[in-house]
């Protein structure tokens, strides 16, 4: 009896020494015995005391799942590697570069078909090669859209709660490196440039490429906020004419104002600013990598004296255009909805998309750095809104009736078309025709411009439409699940040793 009581007492002591899974608001001790706050928040797809992993939820097959990490209390110089057992030796997109080894704190990967996929993350100390932790979890991929159809609203029509959740979600993406990962992709899309046309700008894929791009961002924001009701707000900048500089969108109430010339144009207040100045709270800090014009978000309103903002009358005229695009299908096109919306037909429609970028200045005025300014999503949601309305007004269901061009095997694409290449005896503009894979994910224009697909994702509410708060939390089965093995590295060995000691002591006591 004494032996059993002694064994029970020692086992209780063992379990009291074992690492606890701290609640999101508790404090924990790391390996150096310093107390730190546990990682927390509903946005974390996977959360342990020292490691949190973000993974895009509700993604569909063939679209990218972005994975990001926050590591606290681990090795200063960490090596992070990922594996996907069901995919084998798959390659990932890392730092804006495709077909890379799946290593690093943030990357994206394509799951080709619907199902549940295992993911493993291994973190080691690069200096000593010592294992810090290995964790596994799963990602669920759907056949098609798995999110209830959302409603994108004008920024000014959001409730206080809706705007607050959008801001918080954006900052979570920033913390996990996901926002910067997406920004690097937008930058890298300009590197594949032929004549006046790149993978994402200056050509027919401008509108479908950005529709896919901001849709990926929208799903990430929903994951970050654990709220499927989060949608991209749009900024109807024609409504702010002629007093564009006085737009409430460009104030601290929303995306923040102009940069301060005394600190190199840094934005110093609002929800996205430079926290090194006293007017910017630490919770609003929005750093930008130095190689992309950082370390701060910068704006220089109207510094580009040639920048113009299109009017509602010019937008109405563009909406009446019948054809999506016309030869030469680049920045030199003089007709077509795409060229007009992008901002190349200046004498008729003004600068449209391009003018807003140029006028705001800072990172936003340069395509490779523009996504680092969060106003990007509101601007491009507005561009997409007008394309959406144009498609609906024409009754577009696919490429027919001038709804998209160039189509597959389009006779208007020939040897004289800038950037065209002959593939299997047919002249094509790679990455821009109806069924072409767009860089970097392989999504085609037909995947985002076919009405039966994109109309299930979201609709656009007219400006001035009242809204009400109706959050929709993501249920556990729709995204990543908790770590299969969440015990910190070394706990099992610690437990076995203590259990062995307990058994030896209890046996010894029985002989007393």
List the helices and strands and how they pair.
Elements: H1 2-17, E1 27-29, E2 35-37, E3 46-47, E4 51-55, E5 64-71, E6 78-83, E7 92-94, E8 97-100, E9 106-110, E10 115-125, E11 131-141, E12 150-152, H2 160-175, H3 178-188, H4 206-225, H5 312-319, H6 337-342, H7 346-349, H8 352-360, H9 375-394, E13 421-423, E14 426-428, H10 445-449, H11 451-454, E15 458-460, H12 491-510
Parallel strand pairs: 12-15
Antiparallel strand pairs: 1-2, 3-4, 4-5, 5-9, 6-10, 7-8, 10-11, 13-14
Helix pairs in contact: 1-12, 2-4, 4-9
Descriptive overview:
There is one protein chain. Helices cover 27% and strands 14% of the residues. The chain contains twelve helices and 15 strands. The chain has helices spanning 2-17, 160-175, 178-188, 206-225, 312-319, 337-342, 346-349, 352-360, 375-394, 445-449, 451-454, 491-510, and strands spanning 27-29, 35-37, 46-47, 51-55, 64-71, 78-83, 92-94, 97-100, 106-110, 115-125, 131-141, 150-152, 421-423, 426-428, 458-460. Helix 1 (2-17) runs antiparallel to helix 12 (491-510), helix 2 (160-175) crosses helix 4 and helix 4 (206-225) crosses helix 9. The radius of gyration is 26 Å and the shape is globular. It holds the Pfam family Tyrosinase.
Helix content: 25-40%
Order of helices and strands: HEEEEEEEEEEEEHHHHHHHHEEHHEH
Distance between the termini: 12 Å
* Tally of individual domains: 2
Mean pLDDT rating? 84
CATH superfamily name of the largest domain?
A: Di-copper center containing domain from catechol oxidase
**SS summary, helix count:** 12
Give the biggest sheet.
4 strands, antiparallel
| The CATH class of the largest domain | Mainly Alpha
Tell me the strand percentage band.
5-15%
CATH topology of the largest domain: di-copper center containing domain from catechol oxidase
What would CATH call the architecture of the largest domain? Orthogonal Bundle
Largest sheet, order of strands side by side?
3-4-5-9
Record field, number of beta strands: 15
Keywords: Copper, Metal-binding, Signal
Signal peptide: 1-22
Domain Tyrosinase copper-binding: 373-384
InterPro entries: Di-copper_centre_dom_sf (IPR008922), Tyrosinase/Hemocyanin (IPR050316), Tyrosinase_Cu-bd (IPR002227)
